[in-house]
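Treating backbone geometry as a discrete language has practical consequences that deserve illustration. No coordinates are needed to read the tokens, only the vocabulary itself. For completeness, the protein is quoted in full, as a sequence line and a line of structure tokens:
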Amino acid sequence: MSIQLGLGLTAILLTPFGLSDAVSFDQSASASDPWHVAGPPTVISQEVRFSNAGASLVGTAYLPNTGDRLPAVVVLHSAGAATREAALYRHLREGLPALGVAVLIYDRRGSGQSSGSLQGADHEMLADDAVAGQHALAKLSRIDPAKIGFWGLSQGGWLAVLAAGRSQNAAFAISISAPLVTADEQMQFATSNLLAVRGFSQEDVREMLETRRAWTGYLRGTNPREVAIDALSKAQSKPWFNLTYMPKASDLANDQAIRRSLDDDPVAAVLKARVPLLFLYGGSDPWVPVAQSMKRLEALSGQRHNIESGIIPNANHELMFPVKETMQVNADTDRNDAPEAPSYFMLLGSWLSRRFPNR
């Protein structure tokens, strides 16, 4: 089912959670600062600690200052935004409590205040970390244990669906900018676009894809190690090589974790999750084959009635509107990139309000 923005959405979004109740004015604003009005503290927070698979995980639960039996969201991480301070999660910790929905954001294992390591952590372990967070959140007196679901963007979006299928009592999952193709298909798409965006030729793209096939062929066991080493040795002197997420020949290893993830089919996780699922994509996402992902969702929607999906026009992978797309990934983008598309916020709030109209 594809969801659309309608003229009545503002009323749908605001009315169920009574946002008007949170509006007040500070009569003590100083004459020298007449435009500054301090609102009430509508969001309260508390630390939440839990553990899974040898890691002690630390997060923060953000709740509205009033209300009981609250629905709640557990946040799963994108590859780069590993801690709760990342800008990517700001709209959740500020916006969802204002809508009457609590949210738990925790530091991923091996990051921030959480112990453990990503080394050797597969997708199932990361999903189970979030399920452990769900159980911890359910112990808070103001949370309804039957109304806790998962949210994630990019890798976190796929993990959110995986967690919903692995949890015994998840209520929903929201997947943002997560491909419904294998990791290998997604990376072929993304790296082809990355080279094109940076000004490389179609011949460069063709050579890159051939090199990638030699490397992944070795990981799968379909071609000898010598073929992969030869291809990587020739490619690593190319100016585009460092953009491709491939190892140098000297670093080539039969990485079991990468090999297992290459052909993981996200559709299997979708089929296992029996709860309501929302998939949202940016219409101008160079990292994810959105058209192919939506086609798969449409086919799945014919089999299952728990799936809704939508496209945010002109938005990129992070649901932003860059003047010029560069597909830049670094510490600054990991720390600062965050959704800015108004229709995304409205669709997210509208969908949650329909799940829990009476809180």
Notes: The chain is about 40% helix and 15% strand. The beta strands are 43-52, 55-64, 70-76, 102-106, 143-153, 173-176, 277-282, 307-312. Residues 182 and 265 are 5 Å apart (CA to CA).
